UniProtKB/TrEMBL annotation:
Its EC number is 4.2.1.136. Homotetramer. In the N-terminal section; belongs to the NnrE/AIBP family. Residues 10-249 form the YjeF N-terminal domain. Residues 258-521 form the YjeF C-terminal domain. It is an enzyme of class 4 (lyase). AMP binds at residues 430-434, 459. The keyword 4Fe-4S does not apply. This is ADP-dependent (S)-NAD(P)H-hydrate dehydratase. It catalyses: (6S)-NADPHX + ADP = AMP + phosphate + NADPH + H(+); (6R)-NADPHX = (6S)-NADPHX; (6S)-NADHX + ADP = AMP + phosphate + NADH + H(+); (6R)-NADHX = (6S)-NADHX. (6S)-NADPHX binds at residues 293, 346, 397, 460. Pfam families: Carb_kinase (PF01256), YjeF_N (PF03853). NCBIfam families: yjeF_cterm.
Length: 527
């Protein structure tokens, strides 16, 4: 498990660290790590063409210092300064000292081409012919400068995104979008410093043009963006420059589980166990209209643990046909004792569905409530009152979340955390980055490596898995987090098949791949 820290937390820790080591030393440590990972990404350094997109502030400074290191190792490095009057002075001096080239799109001064910033400094390795560009009367770069920058980007082997850092807000501003689009159009990979520019550090949200990185090199610790917007970050490499002790007294904003964490916590039978001691879960799902929901949820519960599964509902015959191990009955009042219930998929939201939910609540055992059960909670305030403070997991997608807790908005962690506190239960907000929030404020984020779980019936599978883990005795937050990770791994395994390129796979294939995913996480937990 690793923590995710917000921009405010990181800035506070860095300020404390700089009182010990100094800001330039901190930046040079970060830049050395960035240069290392760029070299590793390229596979070779000598003769490779590296373009730095440099904005104002420390993020641009990281890129400039890294560029100086890459230049010393034989790369052809050009920094495109998007705001040269605010470029990091020490980083720019280091690049020039290493004879890196500089193209200033916004040179300071009243006119294009005037003053030393426009002409460059041949002795320091900048190119006077490319250090033009100037300003138009409106403050936008002249066409010639943009053309030169675009040509550099399109001809590069890699572009380093040093446009904005963790303090950035909102979309990319001109002229950055045009240059980022040029790289994308030419297939030139972008390596992001700390996070892809234009993507919010704390929420992973975008609001216009932004960078989609092939690799992100982050400094000191991981941030929420790396989990919430994983497809925009690409693989994330952490440069550990000693920030940890300065974060020591700060609770992470949220956490990410590893395969090993889940494998170590997943319940497996011991020498003294039997089917009852490992947990008996009840599944109340499906209907004449949606019998598949019952089959998917109940079967997933059977595959998740070695305990026992009871099923109650009108789809009992279908469940027995597919899963002879499951004890099925037509009515929840006829079901035997359980240690947990999973209720909701395909259940219906009429009087019968409501009666089933109330009966499950009467059992006073941990619950996983999904789909129609969430809609019933949204419709009936007294049902919401009954779950408050109880060991309950709600598993809404964005639409269901809106019914019971309001619109999600751009801050998924904040929304899930508020809902968990208000409802007094654990809330699992589904998405490519699934967020699991406990009433006490703890948050897990599972950044799925792909989107193969986005298929009909996928949520039914997840509900059954969570129910089985609740019956086995896991805390609701852990049950939801562990099941989410294995669910995503099962979706990937189902899509990949026998090692061939992945293809869409239905929820039934995902269900069948649960043992494959469990073997993988248990292997990850092995000494």
């Amino acid at each position: 498990m690793h923590g995710l820290h917000t921009a405010d937390q990181v800035r506070a820790a860095e300020a404390a660290m700089m009182r010990t080591v100094g800001d330039e030393m901190l930046m040079r440590r970060a830049a050395a790590g960035l240069a290392h990972h760029v070299r590793e990404f390229l596979g070779a350094t000598y003769g490779r063409r590296v373009v730095l997109l440099v904005g104002a502030g420390d993020n641009g400074g990281d890129a400039l210092w890294a560029g100086a290191e890459l230049r010393r190792r034989g790369a052809h490095v050009t920094a495109v300064l998007l705001a040269p009057d605010r470029a990091h002075p020490a980083g720019l001096a280091a690049l020039r000292a290493a004879r890196g080239r500089v193209l200033a799109l916004h040179p300071p001064g009243p006119a294009a081409g005037s003053g030393p910033a426009a002409g460059g400094d041949p002795a320091s390795g900048s190119d006077p012919g490319r250090s033009t560009g100037g300003r138009t009367g409106t403050g936008t770069p002249a066409a010639g400068g943009l053309d030169a920058a675009r040509a550099l980007v399109v001809g590069a082997d890699v572009v380093v995104d040093g446009i904005v850092g963790i303090s950035g807000r909102g979309a990319l501003r001109d002229p950055a979008p045009e240059l980022v689009a040029a790289a994308d159009g030419a297939g030139v990979p972008i390596v992001a410093c700390d996070l892809p520019s234009g993507v919010d550090c704390d929420t992973g949200a975008t609001d216009g043009p932004h960078v989609r990185a092939a690799l992100t090199v982050t400094f000191g610790c991981r941030k929420p963006v790396h989990a919430l917007a994983a497809p925009l970050c690409g693989p994330v490499r952490l440069v550990d420059f000693g920030l940890g002790p300065f974060l020591g007294g700060t609770e992470p904003h949220s956490r990410v589980l590893s395969d090993g964490d889940v494998g170590a916590r997943w319940p497996v039978p011991g020498p003294d166990d039997d089917k009852y001691s490992q947990g008996v879960v009840g599944i109340a799902a499906g209907s004449a209209t949606y019998p598949g929901a019952a089959v998917l949820a109940a079967g997933a519960a059977a595959l998740a643990t070695s305990g026992m599964v009871r099923f109650a509902g009108s789809a009992a015959d279908e469940v027995r046909r597919h899963w002879p191990e499951i004890v099925a009955t037509g009515d929840i009042t006829d079901a035997g004792r359980t240690q947990a219930w999973a209720v909701g998929p395909g259940l219906g939201t009429g009087g019968q569905g409501r009666a089933v939910l109330e009966e499950a609540l009467d059992r006073e055992v941990p619950l996983c409530l999904d789909a129609d059960a969430i809609t019933l909670l949204a419709q009936h305030a007294h049902l919401r009152m009954r779950i408050h403070g109880e060991p309950v997991v709600l598993t809404p997608h964005a639409g269901e979340f809106a019914r019971i807790a309001g619109e999600v908005g751009p801050d998924r962690i904040g929304a899930a955390r508020r809902a968990a506190a208000d409802l007094g239960v654990t809330v699992l907000l589904k998405g490519n980055a699934t967020v699991v929030a406990a009433p006490d404020g703890r948050v897990l984020v599972d950044p799925a490596a792909d989107s193969w779980a986005a298929t009909a019936g996928s949520g039914d599978v997840l509900t059954g898995m969570i129910g089985a883990l609740l019956a086995a005795g896991l805390d609701p937050w852990w049950a939801a987090g562990c099941a989410t990770l294995v669910h995503a791994r099962a979706a990937t395994a189902a899509a990949r098949g026998h090692g061939l390129p992945p293809v869409p796979a239905p929820a039934s294939a995902m269900q069948a791949a649960i043992p494959v995913a469990l073997r993988a996480v248990r292997a990850a937990a092995s000494p």
